[in-house]
Design the sequence.
């Protein structure tokens, strides 16, 4: 039971890290496009 709970918490943390990385990548792409247009 305790192991499952820990795994769930770990997965939650990994998902958060992944989402943050995706957002950062998206933001970088948006700024690159913005600079190319101007």
Sequence:
């Amino acid at each position: 039971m305790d192991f499952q709970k820990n795994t769930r918490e770990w997965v939650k943390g990994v998902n958060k890290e992944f989402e943050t990385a995706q957002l950062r990548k998206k933001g970088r792409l948006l700024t690159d496009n913005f600079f190319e247009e101007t």
Remarks:
- The chain has a mean pLDDT of 83.
- The CA atoms of residues 21 and 29 lie 12 Å apart.
- The first helix runs from residue 2 to 37.
- The radius of gyration is 17 Å.
